[in-house]
Amino acid sequence: MTNQNTDPEQLFEDDRDGTERAAYVRTMFGEISGRYDLMNRLMTLGRDQSWRRRAADAIVWPGDTVVDLGTGTGDLALACLDAGAARVVGLDVAAPMAARARSKAADRGASARAGFGLGDATRLPLADESVDAWCSAFMVRNIPDLDAALAEAYRVLRPGGRLAILEIPKMEGGLLRPFARFHFNQVVPRLGRAISGHGSAYTYLPVSVDHFLTPRELTARLRARGFEVTQVRMLMLHTVALHVAVKPSRP
């Protein structure tokens, strides 16, 4: 179990190679898996499912093979099936999350087209150029080595393959920033503690956002890894960003 008194800020300040933070994230998400969907609905006022559908619609073509990283309870993966994917592989570092995703797929009769298991975004168990689309929802800010994960995404995507990242970015200055910070720093931890019973999980969320990238910085990072960024859409009063990119086709 995670230490309920863990100071998330220290995970970023003291854990230089990211191993301690990765272990914390894996255990923490396993511990909150039972209330994960409920917390997502409450934090986003019920909008998170529509964002996942938008991400899936932006990158999935009929018949595609898709990999969903940090699949959680499988909502984005299942949205990709609804968008026309023939096959989805959902990977997560937390075994209880993957188990819940498998249960959802079984309830929908989609087990034959959706497989869920354990996997690390920086070391994918997939062949080069083997998938048509790569996606993630609220996951990449938890990866200590983001460049390694983007390099893996580039490796497994076929030329012309699409990528979608749905994430809470670090907010740039503006009129909405104080309100967003109040929501993430005050409302979310209290709500998370009450709903999930986990002392530090939803304190970690605002800290992880503060240590993540702005939308412009993530765009630059994607381009540096060879992707062509085709869309950056800001959602929920600019507190959520959807990045869509393409791996260039060969000449």
Structure overview:
- This protein has 251 residues and is an alpha/beta fold.
- The chain has a single domain, classed as 3-Layer(aba) Sandwich (Rossmann fold).
- The chain is 45% helix and 20% strand.
- The protein has ten helices and seven strands.
- The protein has a seven-stranded mixed sheet with strand order 3-2-1-4-5-7-6, sandwiched between helices.
- α3 packs antiparallel against α8 (177-196) and α4 (48-59) packs across α5 (75-82).
- It is globular and about 45 Å long.
- The termini are far apart.
- The relative contact order is 0.16.
Short note summarizing the structure:
By secondary structure, the chain is of the alpha/beta class. It has helices at residues 8-14, 19-31, 36-43, 48-59, 75-82, 95-107, 146-156, 177-196, 201-210, 215-224, and strands spanning 65-69, 87-92, 114-118, 131-137, 157-167, 228-235, 240-246. It has a single domain, classed as Rossmann fold, CATH 3.40.50.
